[in-house]
Amino acid sequence: MRRLNSFVCSTALLLGASAFLLAQSPDLRELIQHTQADLHRAADFELHAHKQIDRYQHAETKLSDLDRHYTRGHFDRGKLNDSIDAVKDVVDHNTLSPDLRDALESDLRDLRRARADHEKM
User: What is the mean pLDDT of residues 39-53?
Assistant: First the structure.
């Protein structure tokens, strides 16, 4: 009987955690979409040097990869870290207008907050 109770409690906990993660899904997906939109705006703004274009493409690829795995129910902290690093690389090294730099900095804060929220689980 104790095994059955333990199994039922474990299953309920697992289902609750899964439901919580799925409930969080739209927030992270919206954040990924917003960050990608900011990257597109920034890419349209600046003069296109080869390295700058590569940084944009790298950041967009990392965000897309994160989103692809997340929509399948797989949160991957490493992919989120890679996305954060790639966006930070754009902010640190590309020519940006002040408002675009602010927008991407805000996206970075939000991505870091999402990472911290998932670490609490």
Answer: 82
